[in-house]
Design goal:
The chain has 211 residues and is mostly beta strands. The protein is built from no helices and 12 strands.
Length: 211
């Protein structure tokens, strides 16, 4: 992973093209709330670098008006171009399955191609293009987005993104604050859809060695 600033991923919708270094693992966890209802969500996602790929597991719990949902599934990410930390351009593929763990395991999924351009050491531009498959129905919708990431210094980075998923656009702005070189905290606020539904998320990221 890059040491010069934050990377998208975490709870941000637009992913970057990097993967963990060999022998490294991480977990990402976050809690968020959106809408008037409101809808609350909790995520836990461990991942490890295994050979040339990053293997992960996503677990999510949502609640609205006393109704709870739980989904989970595996994820794979492969950086196939620009693996060096200082590469000006890099590209990856990310794919995962999502199962409804409360209602018969109805499956969905996601396929995304993340691209990252680094015009300067402190600035990264991320772009995503892919598709989502809805749980149960298998209905496919396009996924796309772009993000700017600016490292103010070694401990603070700002991230702004615009993303389209499930036929709805979301704008998000936030920051990543490094408590140590391997532990960081995320904060962001978002507006979704034509009504501008507001939300916020607090997240924690921790990277560690498994060897």
């Amino acid at each position: 992973m890059l040491g010069t600033g934050a990377q998208a991923a975490g709870h941000f919708d637009v992913d970057d093209a990097s993967t963990l270094d060999p022998g490294q693992c991480q977990y990402e966890t976050w809690w968020g709330r959106t809408g008037v209802e409101p809808v609350t969500g909790f995520h836990f996602g461990p991942a490890c670098r295994v050979g040339p790929v990053e293997l992960g597991l996503n677990l999510d719990r949502t609640a609205v008006a006393g109704v709870h949902g739980v989904t989970g599934g595996p994820q794979l990410k492969w950086n196939f171009y620009g693996q060096a930390p200082d590469a000006p351009f890099s590209a990856a593929v990310s794919m995962g399955a999502v199962f409804d763990l409360k209602h018969g395991g109805r499956a969905g999924g996601q396929f995304v191609v993340p691209l990252t351009w680094r015009p300067f050491d402190s600035l990264q531009v991320h772009a995503n293009l892919g598709a989502d498959w809805a749980n149960g129905t298998g209905a496919r919708t396009a996924r796309m987005g772009a993000a700017l990431e600016w490292a103010l210094n070694d401990t603070v980075s700002l991230i702004a993104e615009r993303n389209r998923a499930s036929n709805v656009w979301t704008s998000r702005i936030g920051g990543r604050f490094s408590l140590t070189p391997l532990i960081s905290v995320d904060l962001s606020t978002s507006r979704t859809g034509p009504q501008g539904v507001r939300g916020f998320v607090v997240g924690l990221n921790h990277e560690f060695s498994w060897k």
